[in-house]
């Protein structure tokens, strides 16, 4: 099939426009020429008729009607026109071609009717006398203001048509020459327009094939030249971008290959777009790209994870594949409609965690028994009056026992051995227990211990034991690091839950330490903590209890002015 090029389209459109224009020109110009010549000849006939009417008027007044026939014949021969004189009653007085006595009454002829009304009568019609079409022009003959007859001049339309046809032939010839010239001009114009376009097409083909070298040099100082220049600039920039992308792609490929974790990239339809060697080794498949994940992944847990990940922004879940444990992390790439799944092998880490958990449990068990025994002996020694160094030993033993208890509590919270037993309890009852527990300690330091609830009764849904443990650690810390002023605990409602605020007027926490205070064994003032019996585990326990209740904790502190812990615990309706 022949290609329909732009050149052909433009040239054919030019040809159509030229032929339509030439045709319309011939049509209208022929009509104009015809009208012009008929009008011109009508004026000539009118002039002849007026000249004849003057002479006929004189002859009529001199009673020389017999001379009219001879006169019109003579005029007709000299002018080359047919002259007819008609009386006001329609009777022909004279005719240059026929005998008037043999001619019909002309009163009903259209040009005669008009002339008898005092107007110039013009008519093109078939003549019964001559058996041909004729052009008639009739003028009235007036004498003393009265129309006494009509002078009519006429000529054969055949003569007019011959002249018009001659002019048409010349007009067609000149139009044809003009059209040929226009076609040649159109051809070269079309070539001039389409040649640079062809160059641009060839240039674009090279770009599509990945060849980004400079295209044609623009030789035109117009919009097409500007387009060619812009295409050259675009090609250079695209070339640089492709080089950069290629370099980045190679760098990314190298990075992906160097990553020890398995990586999987899946599009929104579940088709695997990329997978590194670690993933292929994990599932035992070599060719996985461009295949649906359920065709290559046989592990049910992994299939379920990927299916859920396709509908979520991000996910994190621990699953077992074969004999290894993984933390799977997925993240949706919105712009590309793909998800990236990363496999973190935590098999060895889990073993270490189990060993650590076992060690902490064993350590707690092994320490607790002898420490309890030592404390018992210390009490016996006190009773027997052997008080030297006893207070120091007892204080340190109490601190070690508290550390063991805190380690056990923290171990249970961290490894989720402890589950929140949610109950509906009155917040005021818990605060009363806290006040009883710390009343004496606060009084010894001269501190005001304040407990406040927003309303009475104020029922909250928490694990009573863990919630009280959380408050114990916060209030104990507040009293330990406050030398004057007050320690207050306030519970009040918030949107979707309730707030707990523990505030003191103590030494405060420097800004650089706030981000680390929830770490295990981290203490701001080590000498004071050691002196007051702090273990460095209380705030870590608090954080885990808050997380177990799906809550959040916030700390605001000004050194020298005090610290405020604000906790939010969500509540289901």
What's the quick description here?
The chain is an alpha+beta fold and 573 residues long. The chain has 14 helices and 17 strands. The model is unreliable at 526-530 (pLDDT under 50).
Count of domains: 4
The profile of the biggest β sheet is:
5 strands, antiparallel
CATH evolutionary superfamily of the largest domain: PAS domain
Give start-end ranges of low-pLDDT stretches. Answer: 526-530
| Helix percentage | 40-55%
The CATH class assignment of the largest domain is Alpha Beta
Task: Please give the alpha-carbon distance between the first and last residues.
Answer: 74 Å
Mean residue pLDDT: 78
Q: Note the overall shape.
A: elongated
Structural class of the secondary structure composition?
Answer: alpha+beta
Number of strands: 17
What's the total helix number? Answer: 14
Give the strand content.
Answer: 15-25%
What is the strand arrangement across the widest sheet?
A: 2-1-5-4-3
CATH architecture of the largest domain: 2-Layer Sandwich
Radius of gyration: 59 Å
Report the CATH topology name of the largest domain.
Beta-Lactamase
Describe what this molecule looks like in 3D.
This protein folds into 4 domains: 6-163, PAS domain (Beta-Lactamase), CATH 3.30.450; 259-342, Beta-Lactamase, CATH 3.30.450; 350-413; 419-570, Histidine kinase-like ATPase, C-terminal domain (Heat Shock Protein 90, 2-Layer Sandwich), CATH 3.30.565.10. The protein is 53% helix and 21% strand. The chain has helices at 6-61, 65-79, 110-116, 157-208, 223-258, 277-283, 293-296, 300-309, 347-383, 390-414, 427-444, 464-480, 526-532, 538-548, and strands at 82-87, 92-95, 121-127, 132-143, 146-156, 262-267, 272-275, 314-321, 324-333, 338-345, 423-426, 448-453, 459-462, 486-494, 497-504, 552-558, 562-570. Helix 4 runs parallel beside helix 5 (223-258), helix 9 runs antiparallel to helix 10 (390-414) and helix 12 packs antiparallel against helix 14. It starts with 5 loop residues before the first helix and ends with a strand. Mean pLDDT is 78; it is low at 526-530.
């Amino acid at each position: 099939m022949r290609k329909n090029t732009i050149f052909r389209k433009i040239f054919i459109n030019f040809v159509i426009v030229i032929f339509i224009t030439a045709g319309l020109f011939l049509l209208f110009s022929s009509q104009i020429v015809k009208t012009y010549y008929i009008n011109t000849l009508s004026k000539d006939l009118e002039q002849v008729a007026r000249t004849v009417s003057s002479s006929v008027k004189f002859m009529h007044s001199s009673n020389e009607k017999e001379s009219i026939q001879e006169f019109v014949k003579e005029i007709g021969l000299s002018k080359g026109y047919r002259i007819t004189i008609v009386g006001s009653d329609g009777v022909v007085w004279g005719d240059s071609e026929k005998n008037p006595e043999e001619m019909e009454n002309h009163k009903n002829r259209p040009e005669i009717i008009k002339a008898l009304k005092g107007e110039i009568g013009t008519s093109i019609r078939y003549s019964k006398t001559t058996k041909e079409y004729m052009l008639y022009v009739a003028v009235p003959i007036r004498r003393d203001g009265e129309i006494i007859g009509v002078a009519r001049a006429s000529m054969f339309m055949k003569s007019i048509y011959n002249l018009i046809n001659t002019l048409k032939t010349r007009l067609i010839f000149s139009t044809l020459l003009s059209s040929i010239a226009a076609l040649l001009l159109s051809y070269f114009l079309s070539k001039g327009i389409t040649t640079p376009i062809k160059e641009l097409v060839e240039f674009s083909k090279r770009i599509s094939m990945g060849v980004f070298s400079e295209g044609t040099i623009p030789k035109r100082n117009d919009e097409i030249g500007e387009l060619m220049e812009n295409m050259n600039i675009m090609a250079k920039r695209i070339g640089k971008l492709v080089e950069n992308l290629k370099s980045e792609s190679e760098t990314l490929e190298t990075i992906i290959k160097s990553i020890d974790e398995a990586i999987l990239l899946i599009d929104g339809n579940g088709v695997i777009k990329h997978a590194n060697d670690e993933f292929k080794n994990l599932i035992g498949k070599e060719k996985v790209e461009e295949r649906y994940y359920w065709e290559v992944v046989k592990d049910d847990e992994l299939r379920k994870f990927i299916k859920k990940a396709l509908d979520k922004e991000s996910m994190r879940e621990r699953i077992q594949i074969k004999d290894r444990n993984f933390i799977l992390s997925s993240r949706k790439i919105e712009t590309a409609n793909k998800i990236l799944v990363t496999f973190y092998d935590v098999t060895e880490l889990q073993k270490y965690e189990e060993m650590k958990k076992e060690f902490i449990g064993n350590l707690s068990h092994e320490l607790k028994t002898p420490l309890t025994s030592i404390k018992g002996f210390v009490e016996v020694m006190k009773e027997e009056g052997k008080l030297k160094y006893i207070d120091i030993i007892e204080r340190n033993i109490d601190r070690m026992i508290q550390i063991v208890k805190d380690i056990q509590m923290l171990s249970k919270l961290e490894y989720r051995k402890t589950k929140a037993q949610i109950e509906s309890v009155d917040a005021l009852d818990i605060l009363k227990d806290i006040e009883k527990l710390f009343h004496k300690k606060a009084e010894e330091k001269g501190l005001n211990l304040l407990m406040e609830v927003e309303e009475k009764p104020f029922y909250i849904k928490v694990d009573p034991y863990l919630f009280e443990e959380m408050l114990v650690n916060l209030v104990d810390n507040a009293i330990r690091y406050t030398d004057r002023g007050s320690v207050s605990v306030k519970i009040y409602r918030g949107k979707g839950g309730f707030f707990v605020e523990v505030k003191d007027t103590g030494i405060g926490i420097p800004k650089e330490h706030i981000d680390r205070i929830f770490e295990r064994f981290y203490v701001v003032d080590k000498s004071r903590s050691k002196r007051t019996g702090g273990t460095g585990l209380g705030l870590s326990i608090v954080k885990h209890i808050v997380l177990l209740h799906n809550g959040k904790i916030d700390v605001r502190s000004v050194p020298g002015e005090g610290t405020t812990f604000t906790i939010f615990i969500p509540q289901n309706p």
